[in-house]
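To whoever is on call:

I kicked off a structure prediction for a single chain this morning and the downstream step that reads the tokens threw a length-mismatch warning. I double-checked the sequence; it's 177 residues and nothing unusual in it as far as I can see. Pasting both halves so you can look.
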Amino acid sequence: MAIRSEVCELCGSSEEVSELEVPQGVAGEDGSVCVCANCKTQIESGELDETHFNCLNDSMWSEIPAVKVMSAILLNQLGRQDLLEMMYFEEAEQAWFDKALSAEANKVVFRDANGVELHAGDSIVILKDLDVKGAGFTAKRGTTVTRIALPNDMDDHVEGRVNGTKIYLKTEFIKKA
């Protein structure tokens, strides 16, 4: 399937344009936007550069519903309530935006002892000696645990391997490496 546009529908760049699904949208062309590599990287990582996304001042007025909704989602993440209040949504677009916001609000965020957000695959360091129940050893302070996993049912624990044993570590006793 060919992409709809050869330029980023958010910032107008023509470098490495590809399609990106808009959260909570419909699959396919109607539920995606064409974005450049820079926009895509920032959107997927969640680390948005407000200066780069000043382009949303223009894209928020797009006639394409997916572009309009993605612009609104990003403006919300940037805390730009002033611009969000100026937007006009058709009923279906408003429902899409509301659904995406509620899904984002329900997303579990894992944070280490310093409040730094953790992601699956990160490396962490244990901050204090921890007795590992049932395994008969102590996870020593300063031990680096690589490639952690984030369990779906607990937001205050991460999963990792120490001494070859899979264990759960409380986030209050770890920091991102």
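Update from on-call: the warning came from a stale cache, not from the record. Cleared it. Sanity check on the structure: The longest strand covers residues 157-162.
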